[in-house]
Amino acid sequence: MPSLTRRTIALAFLALTLAGCGNSNPYEGMEAEQLYALGRQKYEARDWDDAIKALDRLLMSFASAERAPEARLLLANAYYGKRDYLTARSEYQRYLDRYAGYPDAPTAALGTCTSLVALSPNPNRDQNYTNEALGVCRNVVVDYAGTPQAEQAAGLANDMRRKLAEKEFLAADYYFRRKLYDSAIIYYEFVVELYPESEWAPQALLGIYHANKVIGYDDLADEAKGRLLSKYPDSPAAAEVRTNGSSS
User: Are residues 55 and 23 in contact, defined by beta-carbon separation less than 8 angstroms?
Assistant: First the structure.
């Protein structure tokens, strides 16, 4: 990316100041390079709103400008910095729709992933955004394999899977604490079957063990114990079932 000279930035501010004198449109008369310089300067100062205004003006008035792809990505980043993640996601997607073959496409794709991850709520709430983030982040991993962005997206996808596993585990625990053991076992099994790599899987097997013990299904409890010790022998849950199981 060509560097921005101090002269370009100074001219941008001069044009902005002059245009503001008796003019309702402060960007009147500013060229694409000046608008980009102003937008970047405001972005680096974390003045998200003014950065967005300058970049929006550039993209509306100079859609074919040389800086348009950079401005589109910077606009998305500004919305992300403002924590307007839905708009950021839309702007990243607009970049991909227009500039799919550009070098910054992996960065924009990762932006769609990180925007949805930022929208993912705590595990007690509805996980629609979490599920969407998981799918989008996985697409980044596939579409841009071998890039740093794909590696980061893979880590975020794993985070989303852990959150979904925790969601199921909390549902199981909710039923267990209310002595609805059959329902608890169903949700514990979801965790084990759907998210076996997560830290919640051994905890779920421990839950299945305890629930069956309470019900009086000793054979099923022993089966859960065997699965736990076989699949997750080094987990805290396995250590607990060894201790409790030997005394029961």
Answer: no
Mean pLDDT of 114-140: 96
Residues 136 and 202 both lie in one domain: no
How many DSSP H helices and E strands does the chain contain? 12, 0
Residues 109, 120, single domain; the answer is yes
How many angstroms separate the CA atoms of 189 and 185, rounded?
Answer: 6
Q: Please tell me whether residues 92 and 143 are part of one structural domain.
A: yes
Residues 73 and 95 in one domain: no
Query: pLDDT at position 28, please?
Result: 81
> Could you read off the pLDDT of 149-169 as tens digits, one per residue?
999 999 999 999 999 999 999
What's the CA gap between 123 and 45, in Å, rounded? Answer: 34
The answer to whether residue 119 sits within a structural domain is yes
- Map residue 208 onto helix, strand or coil: helix
244: confidence class by pLDDT, cuts 50, 70, 90: confident
User: Buried b vs exposed e over 189-201: b needs ≥16 C-beta within 10 Å?
Assistant: bbbbeebeebebb
Residue 131, phi then psi, degrees to nearest 5:
-65, -40
Alpha helices, DSSP H only, in 25-178?
Answer: 32-44, 48-61, 68-81, 85-98, 105-119, 128-143, 148-177
pLDDT of 21 over the 50 cut: no
Total domains present in the chain: 3
